Amino acid sequence: MRTRVARLYQKGDLRIETAAVAAPGPGEVLLKMAAAGICGSDLHYYQDGGFGPVRVREPIIPGHEASGTVSQAGEGVDLKAGTLVAVNPSQPCGHCEYCQKNMPIHCLDMRFMGSAMRLPHEQGMFREWMVVPAKQCFAVGAATTAAEAACSEPLSVCLHAASRAGDITGKRVLVTGAGPIGALMVAVASYHGASEIVVTDLADAALDRARAMGASRTVNVSKNAQAFAEYEAGKGYFDLVFECSAAAPAIRGAIAAIRPRGTIVQVGVTGDVPIPLNAIVGKELQLHGTQRFHEEFGTAVELISSRKIDVRPIISHSLPLEQAAAAFILAGDRAAACKVQLTF
Question: Which 3 state secondary structure label does DSSP give 49?
Fold first, then answer.
């Protein structure tokens, strides 16, 4: 059996090709893929050939946020044919130092679908058919669409970021950057009981979606920087910041607008950026990194299935696999798109 795939060779060179598909072995399932979102890291691979030290060094099938329908189950698998599942792309080894310390996010031999971090690269989910371990498949609710199920991975990222922040109940929260992760971060902060959520971005369309996800107020800092400056008075206004843009001006603005002993969770990823260490020291701020997720994936599937967190407002476009290159170009247009998904 063969399947069509979207394979990236280098910056801007995305081709639709075919690849072999094996039958599922014990503990595996064959999935007919349904929907797969284009993530920021996928976009970096396509636009820039990578991000930071992670570079595309050989052909790779991108894609790590997807859903599919069980077509065939291998020996020992309980999932029945026809079941729609969200696929967890994370595959920690289970036996290294960090896995043994219950820190699988930091696994020394992590395999993450669609990632160019390892060589050979880990192939991803932009394909019509694929075999995956059944333990990475999470059945979704009967009313859940394939597009919603494919948002389980980015929602998991935000749930893990929230876990790094401590108690959010009653907190004044700032979210900088209203892309898909920023918009989902708004929903997660609201779910966890934030009293106020202010969102900043440079694009009105992104801020519109942030309001749809539960933002109390949005500020386009490219048009109305003074409106945000009011939050800097009295050593800052916010108790907690989720920094989702990885843009140096946004990081500096967040540090200026957070209260002393507040917490900044750095969600966005980029290369090296200058930050005002004197302000972090002077305000006694807590700066936390956050990476991926683990147990949060199952929670994300439950929250999406119950629509306790409604991800539908961020899903802006769905294009068929044969239009993958056009989908990547669209995903790079923040004025037009939020979460762009491929369909199979």
Answer: coil
Global confidence as pTM: 0.96
Contact between 256 and 249 under an 8 Å Cβ cutoff? The reply is no
- 62-85 in b/e burial notation, b at 16+ Cβ within 10 A? bbbbbbbbbeebbeebebeeebbb
> Mean pLDDT per 10-residue run, the chain (344 residues)?
97 97 97 97 95 92 98 96 98 97 96 96 98 98 97 98 98 98 98 98 96 98 93 97 96 97 94 90 97 96 98 97 98 94 98
H helices within 293-336, ranges in order? 296-306, 324-331
Spatial separation of the C-alpha atoms in residues 131 and 32, rounded to whole Å: 9
Q: The tokens of 122 are what?
A: 């880990």
What DSSP state is assigned to residue 141? -
Average pLDDT, the chain: 96
* The pair of three-digit structure tokens given for residue 298, joined into one six-digit string: 């199952």
* Spatial CB neighbours of 60, under 8 Å, sequence gap ≥ 6: 7, 8, 45, 114, 116, 121, 123, 124
